[in-house]
Structures are given as C-alpha cells and as structure tokens.
TrEMBL record:
KW Ribosomal protein (keyword) present: no
UniProt name for this protein: Aminopeptidase
Binding site for Zn(2+) 2: D8, H60, H104, E133
Binding residues annotated for Zn(2+) 1, in chain numbering: D8, E10
TM annotation in the entry: none
MF annotations from Gene Ontology: aminopeptidase activity; metal ion binding
Key words, A-Z: Aminopeptidase, Hydrolase, Metal-binding, Protease, Zinc
One Pfam family of this chain: Peptidase_M55
Length: 274
C-alpha cells in the first residue's frame, strides 16, 4: 500500500509559539528536528505495518523544514516552495491512505497557533461548511477517493478532525492552554504513541471513509480587513460580497477551489497596511 503524509509544524509535540516554527527565530532548529523525528515515527511504523511506498510532503511555511538526511532511508520527500497543490502536492488516487502530522486548528478557533493558510484569514468555507487547512486537504484526498486515516496534532486539531472526517483516528500530542501555550507530551512519549496509532490506523483502514467534496463547490474566504479582501477579489471569477470582507468563488471542482484559495490568500498578503 502507498501512504501519503502531509506534515505541518504548528501541531508538532512541544512547539508552543512562533519562535518554534519561524525560521528566523531562536527555537526553529529545535522545532524542525522534533518535526523530523515525529514524521519518522509515522514512516517507520508505516513500513513495519504493510506500506510499500511512503511519500512525505513538507507542508509548513516555505515547505523546506524537514531534515531529509535524518528521514527513514526509504522515504520519498516533496520539499520546497511553490507547489501547485501546496500541502497536498503529489496526492492522487494511487494512495491507499493519508496521514496528517503536526496539524493545527482552523482560524478563529481555540488552538495553539490556530490559523488558515495566512493570518489574514478569519474564516474559510466550502458550501457554507467552515474548514481550515485540515478540512480543505481532506476534501482533496476525498476527491481522489483516498481516506484520511489519522491526524496527529494539538487537541483542538484532533477535535476538528473528529467532527469532520468519518472514521478518522486522532492523536493529540499536546493540550491547548492558550494560542501560544500548551501542556505537551515529551517527543519520546509522543513518538511512541504515534507509532502505535499509525499501526492501528493501518490495521483499521477499512473503517475510514474519504471525505467526499461537493460538486461545483462555492469557496468563500472571510478576510481580517477590507484591503485583503480587495486584493483577493482581483482574481478573475471572484466576487466581493457587499458590506463584508468575504470573497466568493464558484469552482468547477474542489481542485479548482483549492488553487483559487492559494491564489486569493497569496494576493491578500500584498496588503501593505492593516
């Protein structure tokens, strides 16, 4: 079986604030080492429990965080900046399952470093269903008929996954105190737990169901300020809802909606004064 892993950083064990996930800050090198070891826990367990091929996609920020020289030697890694499908680059119908590692809660919700793609997003919707990165990525997997087997991250990401994805196994490795403080397992304990849960997720693969996206979905993104919405609405096919900071886009399928989201959020970051 082929296994796909999307690895974010904010939900990794012990990482509590931006100093752990920003490459310019003092705790980043510690954070990326813990992240690499956490991904290795999934990969190692995967190969031990029937996976024949495992593809890991580095999915945080500039997407070059994982230390490739420390990964399991049989791992295949997608790393680096601009990707057509960002956090789910390389995912297709040939995979038997998906695992999300280091995931966090969506914007405007409780959870350590909670956000949705950029900090200028307040809410994101597919057909009025509120989603974040976790939900959007699960929808793309569902488009290909691939189930999300497991989500590892903070307790609020686990709660979000459980309410959205049928049959998903969750592994909360830290408990949210505030958006920048957590009560965490140690990396050693978290890795042990993740290995056990990965094995269980692979054994119970028949119980997980793909999160099927709607046909011709309507994507809505609510931005934090009007300037960001104005920039996002420059993308052809979008509509800025009167009297709001919500930009709407009618997509032909979830893949087009995902690309539209990437373009809209990238445009929104060009707002110079908030």
């Amino acid at each position: 079986m082929k296994l796909y892993i999307s690895a974010d950083m904010e939900g990794i064990t012990g990482l509590a604030d931006h100093t752990h996930v920003d490459s310019a800050k003092q705790n980043y090198e510690r954070g990326r080492l813990i992240m690499t070891n956490e991904v290795n826990s999934v990969v190692t367990s995967g190969f031990e429990h029937g996976c024949t091929e495992i593809l890991v996609n580095d999915s945080h920020s500039q997407m070059n965080n994982l230390l490739v020289e420390l990964l399991h030697p049989e791992t295949q890694l997608i790393t680096g900046g601009v990707k057509p499908f960002s956090m789910v680059e390389g995912l297709d119908e040939t995979f038997g399952g998906v695992i999300f590692v280091g995931y966090h809660a969506r914007a405007s919700m409780k959870g350590v470093m909670s956000h949705s793609m950029i900090f200028g997003v307040r809410n994101m919707f597919i057909n009025d269903v509120a989603i974040g990165e976790l939900g959007f990525n699960a929808y793309v997997a569902g488009y290909y008929g691939v189930p999300v087997l497991m989500v590892a991250g903070d307790d609020q990401a686990a709660k979000e996954a459980g309410s959205l994805i049928p049959g998903v196994l969750t592994v909360p490795v830290k408990e949210t105190i505030t958006r920048s403080a957590v009560k965490s397992l140690t990396p050693a304990k978290a890795s042990e737990l993740i290995r056990e849960k990965t094995a269980l997720a692979l054994q119970n693969i028949g119980k997980a169901e793909p999160l099927s996206p709607p046909n011709q979905p309507v994507l809505k993104i609510e931005f934090a300020n009007y300037g960001q919405a104005e920039w996002a609405a420059l993308m052809p096919g979008t509509e800025l809802e009167e009297g709001t900071t919500i930009v709407r886009f009618h997509a032909k399928d979830i893949l087009e909606a995902y690309k539209a989201m990437l373009v809209m959020t990238e445009l929104a970051t060009r707002t110079g004064f908030c």
